[in-house]
């Protein structure tokens, strides 16, 4: 799920992805990456400059997924969730970075 609330009280919820769930047998096929890229594209369209992903730690959790897409720890815990954020301005899209399709740091650096 993606959410956009530029006036939100907490920065982590102004532009965020949370509760991205895929069945175990569907993971590793690019569906999660596709969903994150779609939310990132919408964030850029809406003029957002940072994106946060939130996840709940557990044995089969997604802790290795968002770092591969360039999201970095914030050092916070919010309501039992771990936020990670894009480290740079998301205004620059993949086309601005030599065609990269990864929504993380390489795609968002200006």
Automatic annotation (TrEMBL):
An annotated Gene Ontology molecular function: acyltransferase activity
Keywords: Acyltransferase, Transferase
Transmembrane parts of this sequence: none
The protein's name: GNAT family N-acetyltransferase
Class of the enzyme per the UniProt entry, highest EC level: transferase
CDD domains (alphabetical): NAT_SF
Sequence segments annotated as region (Disordered): 64-110
Classification via Pfam families: Acetyltransf_1
Coiled coil: none
Domain N-acetyltransferase positions: 1-89
EC number: 2.3.1.-
InterPro entries, A to Z: Acyl_CoA_acyltransferase (IPR016181), GNAT_dom (IPR000182)
């Amino acid at each position: 799920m993606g959410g956009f609330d530029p006036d939100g009280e907490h920065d982590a919820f102004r532009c965020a992805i949370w509760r991205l769930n895929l069945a175990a047998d569907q993971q590793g096929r690019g569906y999660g990456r596709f969903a994150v890229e779609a939310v990132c594209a919408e964030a850029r369209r809406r003029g957002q400059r940072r994106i946060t992903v939130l996840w709940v730690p557990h044995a089969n959790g997604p802790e290795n997924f968002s770092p591969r897409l360039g999201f970095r720890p914030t050092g916070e815990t919010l309501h039992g969730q771990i936020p990670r954020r894009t480290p740079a301005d998301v205004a620059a899209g993949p086309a601005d970075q030599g065609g990269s399709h990864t929504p993380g740091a390489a795609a968002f650096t200006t």
